[in-house]
Amino acid sequence: MQVRPIxxxxxxxxxxxxxxxxxxxxxxxxxEFFEHVKAKQARxxxxxxxYLLRKDDRDVGIILTFRSQxxxxxxxxxxVVNLSGWYIDEAYRWYAPMMLKKILKDKTAIFTDxxxxxxxxxxxxxxxxxxxxxxxxxxxxxxSLSRYRRDxxxxxxxxxxxxxxxxxxxxxxxxxxxxGCRTCILSVDGTHHPxxxxxxxxxxxxxxxxxxAPDRQVVLSALGNVSAHLAKRGQFLIAMDCNGLx
Length: 246
Hints:
The chain is an alpha+beta fold. The chain is built from 8 helices and 11 strands.
């Protein structure tokens, strides 16, 4: 068994495995996805975009590892690696724990898994992962109207002033929009919050799943405004990870 970083020459193999494991990507084809990721890696990602599992002289598994540097409240920076897109061909899935163990050897980074499947969730505690949220809040516009605020505004990134958010945040919004995500800027009490939503499906009904926000409590405080903004664009359900509706 070999676990190796995805290099430029490995992209076609990575695409083939992702197509086997996830034949219907929600926002872009897998070749398009990897083109966007490679462009982002050249600008700001500080590690490999993922790893391949090789066995019996062929690539049989993949896990994506998006590493970026984040500034903490105390001003220091830390590498954060989010695990996603983990797939191994069925005959080789018993290698999954060994694959993950090799990737987690790096003790200088914080590892997250924001989209873990039920099978992976059962495995993560053995690797000292801890729950970050209690569950998922799902709400419709009528349900969230009690949290509509008249002192809040929401605009699309192209409608915002160039001084509203940082260049890094604007780049984040543009990158995700290129992958088919919904993006907007929520302004509350003089602060500006970039938001990113991915489209997911529940009982064949599309909903907007919040995948990035600097402060979830701010989003909850203006949930009615956010829901109304998304409803105008055809998404009538909103979902987000949270620890209760506070």
